[in-house]
Structure formats: structure tokens, C-alpha cells
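Chapter summary example: a protein plus adenosine-5'-diphosphate.
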Amino acid sequence: AGMASDYLEIRDLRVTFDGFHAVDGVDLTLLQGDLRFLIGPNGAGKTTLVDAVTGLVPATGSITKSGIELVGKKTHKIARLGVGRTFQTASVFEELSVLQNLDIAAGAGRSPWQLLRRRKDVLPEIEEALETIGLSAHRDTPAGILAHGQKQWLEIGMLLVQNADVLLLDEPVAGMSGDEREETGRLLRRIGAQRTVVVVEHDMDFMRAFATSVTVLARGKVIAEGTVEEVQNDPQVQEVYLGT
Ligand code: ADP
């Protein structure tokens, strides 16, 4: 285990599909307060890496969160340890209201006893999440009629009420308007201050505006890591991007 401040520590992570090394020995340390962008050409292994962290694909190596090993644990167990992710298409319950969506998310993983003790009033953490994601005024709106950006924010809110403190977001601004992107960047900064946020993203302008650090993957390996400026000036990074 690393130092107490090491939030998520990935060591020699490998994911192999029929002999093909999709993730090929990745080391990555993510700290609290980090808004880390994970970039790289198509097929670099970004999604597979996120899948491995969340237990969706089998991996070897080590992923520890505050010292607890995640490799080999089941998806729901990893979620309960505070690691949450979103997918490219928001998966909210369309026919339920914003509040109901958050309520269901908050109930996930709790014991029947904890659920029984809950009253009808809105839990403080739900109220707080509504505020954070900017949907307080839309609490009774069916999620299905929210704007595209608002749906993504709701999904992030669902992770917050599950007490996720490591959030892995897959292309959170894909399909968003300029204003929604700006709003999302500010949201990620707010939540990232106390947590660890990993953003898999193709939008380089969005990355330049909001990343605190960047990791570049290519062919399953980390080829560069640092500030936006550092990775942009890295000859190896320029090569993989020009080469595709
Ligand atoms: P990225 O997200 O960076 O575009 P992926 O993680 O989706 O890359 O994919 C990395 C490589 O692993 C690709 O070559 C892809 O075809 C391969 N791959 C991903 N998932 C599977 C799978 N379930 N079975 C076989 N190959 C896969």
C-alpha cells in the first residue's frame, strides 16, 4: 500500500482478451482533488481500464483504494467501496422523477433496516446532490424529458448519493452544447475538490480548460503523464495522435 493520501493506486494492471493485451501493465496513482483526464487514440484501452477498475472485466495486478484491494472483487462490492462510473449514454430511469432517481440510487446497497428507518422526507444527501448538480428546480421533472446535459448531471448525482468518492466518467460532455460543457466542467471541479475524478474524453478543448492532470494511453500502456502542457509537448503523444 502507498501513502494514506494515495486514493487509488493501480499497479501493473493487465487485461487480456484472447491473448490480446488491451491493458498492458498500467501504473497509475490518483489523488484526492485530482481531475484526471484519460486520453489516447481509439483502441488504446481507456474503456477497458475503467472496466477493470469497476470489476466489469477480469484483470491482474493491483488496484487499491485507500489500501483496499479491488482486483477480484465484484462490481457491486467495488461500487459500495465508493468507486462509481458513468457510461457514454446516461442510464437514468426515464419515467421516474429526478428525485426518485436519486432516491433509488441512495437506497442501492443499503440494508433493509437502513431503508426502513428512512422517512418520507428527502434525505439531506439527496438535497445536497440536487444542489450540486444544479437540478433543485427540476426535482419533480421526469428524467426522460430532461435536456441531454441535465441527464448526465443526474447520473453524476446518482453516484454522489451512493457516496462515490472515485468517479470514472466516460465522455461526459459528448453531445453537449458549449454552455452545457462549461457547466459540466464547473460541476466536475466542484465535486473533484473532495474526490477523485477520472474523465475519459476526446474533447481536447474541454480537457485543456478543466484537467488538473492528464494520462495518455496508447496500445494498453501509459505513454505520458503530467499537466496538459507537458503531455501536449510530448513527442510520443504527438506521434500517436498524428499517426491515427
Ligand atoms: P478505448 O476505450 O481506448 O477506445 P478500448 O478499451 O475500448 O479502447 O479497447 C482496447 C482494445 O481492446 C481494442 O483493440 C478493442 O478492440 C479490444 N477489446 C475491448 N473489449 C474487448 C472484448 N470484450 N473482447 C475482445 N477485445 C476487446
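Key point: The mean pLDDT is 91.
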